[in-house]
Amino acid sequence: MQAPPSVCHCDIPHPASDCPTLIRSSGGGTEAGWGAPPGEPPPAREDFIGQKFGSFRVVRELGQGGMGTVWLAEHALIQKRVAVKVLHAHLAKDRRLVARFLSEARTLTLIQHENVVSLYDLDMREGRPYLVMEYLEGQSLASFATGPLEPVLAVELLSQVCNALEAAHAHGVVHRDLKPANVFLVSGSDGRQRVKLLDFGIAKLLTYPTGMTPTQNGMLLGTPEFMAPEQCGGGQVDARADLYAVGVLGYLLVTGSLPFTGSHPTEVLLAHLMKAPRLPHEVRPEVPQALSRVLVRAMAKRPEDRFASAGELRKALQGALAPERPAQPPLTARVRVSGEAASAELRCERVGRAGLFLFNAEPPPPLLVDVGLLLRLPGGELACTGQVVRHVSAEQARQWNMAPGFGVQLRDTAPGFLEAFERLIAGERVAPQTPPLSNVQEDSSAEAVLQGFRGRLHGDHYLVLGTTWDADFDTVRVNAREARVALEPLLRLSLSPGQRAQVERALERVKEAYHVLSQPERRAEYDAGLRNLEGLLRCLSAGLTVTALEQCRRKFLARHRVPEGQVTLHLITGDAFATQGKLEEARVAYEAALRVDPLNLDVLKRWRTLRGRLRGLRPASLEGTAR
Question: Which residues of 162-172 are buried (b: 16+ CB within 10 A; e: fewer)?
Fold first, then answer.
């Protein structure tokens, strides 16, 4: 083992006699690492160089910690190097501290894992216990990570930490003091860093034998910056406290900063108890949002909201870096037989290179009839024609353990069509200006109108109506009317089945967009999902009442989990910046709050007022627009 340096690794300033990384007793007695009692000289510095501990001769001092000094020693015959940790002489008189020192040995004996430092021997020398441990050549994570690490490297190191904790937790051991100084890195032959978890000196056994509990009620154990809320508040601690520390450690590695700091340990402890951390990807945009979500969940205030185990946390960390594959929407198609209305959207599956099977319990179109198809594929919509080539009745479907329906062979088999079909079904986008390929003659005037709509139909409701997110309600009505005026006459033309299906689809999208955006309550719910603050202000100006807004907000909060205290923290931060005249910083804080809770009227009011001040305007109060 590599000993900790003689200085502490706290990230906040404090007097040397009041190190928060050491053990405090509510009784006020002298504890390890606090130095000699008042009026007594400090213990003399010892020199064991050249002396033997069992079969090992001390070569040099490696460092000192609160409980003991660590020495490098070599075996006299086989030249094996080890680290010898000797309890400080002035602590050997305290039976409690000796028991705690020996508990580390017992803990390491229980845990045998490649990511945990190994214990070789435990013995006494002149009444003082010492541990013979694995000697590690490398550096602590505190020395290695002097700035933010790349997410891939951070996850690799955190995964190994989780491996070590998983082994410890399997034996009922909670580390309780996970921090960079207690994570040691050894360079492997392949150049990768191998983690060794150190210092189980304050570890707690969940199932400790009677009379051997190494901690007592009223003690504060750990390092403030890495302590879980239940540790800070003196509550019951279990393995999930270590997972919280992994979250803090990960936050530090990927952002280069701690989630909570302060000028005094108490300030840090209160932050763990009460404040929500800023999201890692907001601190450093290079952090993937999926990884950011994993770390924040690991730092949940309530243990039950964190991951259930170190293994589950490790899987989540590794999964956060995997390329996100959006779920592919099901393939669907609208079918139109000449002279009949188009069907509803039918789920379908590809069969062969140019065939589809459409699932439909209704009577299918007759065999060998040409039908118009509007296919909705992962990459977009495609109009074409096909021929019905097979029926599967309900009785046949039961026998073959499938759903009833009918098969269609696509008739547009020109190379250009098949290329577009393959690209769209693979999720690629095809330029909307490209006319749909078909063997059926297309109406040129209808095609000219449809070209203007194809690109808009894949966007949000505002894009469908050809307007902006801050459009007023009159503009929404005018644009919807103009879209219907352009599209509805096309249905009186002699269109191909594919064109007719596209016109019907465009009218359906226009109707849906107008239905949502023309009414303040429905638009407010929709804008909240988009985080469209300008749209929300339009709703309030159009007469959306406070009661209606609160109803929309309750629905939004029921669908989206909002972290406790996060909005309040951003709001307080914004107010503080506004008071100091830092308007741009205040605007950023208010908008951060609205990204979490976009229908919060108090924050909306502040944001709107501040936006007006930044633009040099004098905005009217929202009180008159939200009654």
Answer: bbbbbbbbeee
Active site residues: 177
Query: Mean pLDDT in the chain?
Result: 80
Which residues 6+ apart lie within 8 Å of 244 measured at CB?
Answer: 227, 228, 229, 298, 299, 300, 303, 306
Of 418, 435, 452, at which residue does a domain stop?
435
For 452-497, what is the HEC assignment?
HHHCHHHCCHHHHCCCCCCCCHHHHHHHHHHHHHHHHHHHHCCCCH
Statement to judge: residues 540 and 611 lie in one domain: yes
What's the pLDDT at 567?
Answer: 82
Q: For residue 538, how many other CB atoms are within 10 A of its CB?
A: 24
The verdict on residue 1 lying in a domain is no
Range of the domain at 496: 441-518
Tokens 């064991």 belong to 48
User: Residues with Cβ < 8 Å from 112, sequence gap 6 or more?
Assistant: 118, 167
* Helices and strands in the chain, H and E counts: 21, 17
| Bridge partners for 196 per DSSP | 184
Which pLDDT does position 426 carry in this prediction?
78
- With cut-offs at 50, 70 and 90, classify the pLDDT of residue 344: confident
Backbone angles phi, psi at 173, to 5 degrees: -105, 125
Check which CATH number belongs to the domain holding 422 and give it.
2.40.10
Q: What is the pLDDT of residues 30-84, one digit of tens each?
A: 222 223 333 444 455 688 999 999 889 999 998 887 678 899 999 978 889 999 9
Q: Is-above-0.85 flag for pTM?
A: no
